[in-house]
Amino acid sequence: MEYKDYYKIMGVARGATAEEIKRAYRKLARKYHPDVSKEAQAESKFKELGEAYEVLKDVEKRAAYDQLGADWQSGQQFKPPPNWDTGYEHHGGFADNGGSAYSDFFESLFGRGFGGRQGGAQFRSRGEDHNARILIDLEDAYHGATRNINLRTPSLDEQGHVRTVERTLKVRIPRGVKQGQHIRLTGQGMPGLSGGPAGDLYLELDFKPHPFYRIDGRDVYLDLPLTPWEAALGAKVKVPTPAGAVDVSIPANSVAGRKLRLKGRGIPDEPAGDLYVILQIALPPADSDKAKALFAKMQQELAFNPRSALGV
Asked: What is the C-alpha separation between 11 and 3, in angstroms, rounded?
């Protein structure tokens, strides 16, 4: 996917004020409007200009776009960094933006999460709700926890430049939460108008990448290395789980890829998810004369061809 430099498209500097961006858009919109323009590719340029303005006129989208940095150049292949939007507060819901009129680049950034400002909010006394996506540890879902989270809220200063205000909140993570679940913090959204109550803050939960576990709903998956003799002869081994290690019996003649189900060892709930152990065979290294001799003896005495099913 090609990176789009929205500032270059609009012919403004990265530090441009909101008013400068508005003026640039009006000027270029007149130049490239398909109904009046004689410029080559006026329609595509007008569409691209509209996409750029959609981002740069919105303080929240602009702040999120700016954090990707200025290192990307037009024409380079682009992929958003993992969890790039974590911790950004924004208005609106978590619904899709309906951005079919925009490029793949736009949709990769704003197709989810940045729902835009909700219409009519200025006529209500209650403050607007805010939303933010945060990352938690898988272990927090097993035990529950209280964590300090850092959030960033974009706004405009008196000169019309985007600035980011940071705040830290103490949040209780309930036991048994799952990916995509929302936590509501009453009164932590936008302040109310004319003395009205503040809006609420909705936190969408996601799990940090884990070095051991993969998560699917409330089920958890773990790749478990075994020695060849544990897989062949059977064994009782210690298996880590987010709730603590457990003893698991490995059936004799197990093969790589075999799945063992530990019922109820997934993310807690009613009913709890399961933990699936995927067996993997780890070979010891032939890094000594003794080890090489053992492998040579196995080669001579075991009639084993792992490629027999391939007909070779």
From this structure: 16
